[in-house]
Amino acid sequence: MNPADPAIPTPAHAPAHVIDPAGGCPHALNARLRAGGSVSEVVLPGGVPGAVVLGHEALREFLGHPDVAKDARHFPALHDGTIAPDWPLRVFANAQGMHTADAADHRRLRSLVGNAFTARQVERLRPRIEELTAGLLDDLAGAAAEAPGGVADLRTHFALPLPMSVICELLGVDPEHRGRLHHLSNTVIIATDTTPAEAMAAVRELVELMGAIAAARRARPGEDLTSALIAAREGDGDRLSEAELIGTMRLMLVAGHETTLNLISNAVRALCTHRDQLELVREGRATWSDVVDETLRFDGPVSWFPFRYPTRDLTVDGTVIPRGTPVLAGYTAAGRDEAFHGPDADCFDVTRPTAARHLSFGHGAHYCVGAPLARLEATIALERLFTRFPDLDLAVPEPELPHQRSFIGNSVEALPVRLDRS
User: Which InterPro entries match (predicted)?
Assistant: First the structure.
């Protein structure tokens, strides 16, 4: 059907929502926009028109639709001079890797890393993750013992270094680079309130650092994923370009730690503010895997993620999204969609039957390749944390925690905790 057909009435709708680059807690905004439908028009930073898909079923349909692309060649405004060259969100559209590739290119790139993230391969990492977790819990205890009032930042001392250490070991990244890599990836991907100049500078430095890491692995190959990617590139030159190599490394690094950092942080916040749910796990009436799934649904680590592009005018739940529109995937909005998760979707319930059907890892061909690793890290981290410190609690009221300044990432900037509630 042609949406311009005069026989089809054009429904009245609210003005497009202007996205605040500083973001903040997304749930009230999600509820307001979702009340107007599963798809909402938005204005992206820089005045660029776009859309966000908010409803669970609509998002599932959109993510798996054959006429939705990830390649930015389907985003005409990016190339015709409409959008400024220094547009900060270009980093999402211009990156080269499996997350911005379609069809055969996507399958080719995904096949190069997919074997490292199968459930069987990831399970082999369990002893190392458990070892890292134990050491970091010691560090957290030490930090709390030395701090005034026994307060330590759980993100700094536990939730960040665990996934960062795991993904860097997988990639063969030397420890001295890890602090800078987190700062740069956070600036480029998470902190959407940065200036164009800051964002572009961070992108350049991150690409240069990824190139230096690749050069080091090229000179001294090891049993790591970067060395394997380099071998694939040099063994068959048409399999992986240099830009794809750097883009894939960057994707693995950023997705491999930023999202798990937020997942662990959000789960701890939820359990500390819903102690009855924590008791269900301790009583064996729910599992730590249930906690992870319900956290991914209730307060997922990624809120609105860019970009996908309809390759034709596409009707989603009664709303036409014009061809070439940059569309955000509204993961946190879909997670609390009452039409799918029930009238108590705003409640944290580790026994919820629909929790495991969340979309926080995506859906379809681009389903997160690192999902098994994120699950394993989070379940080990949460079980060991609350076993070691059963009285762990927030050191400040949850509403006072500073939220990430981002409309993409969804968590807090710091998570001060006391390991002993007394």
Answer: Cyt_P450 (IPR001128), Cyt_P450_B (IPR002397), Cyt_P450_CS (IPR017972), Cyt_P450_sf (IPR036396)
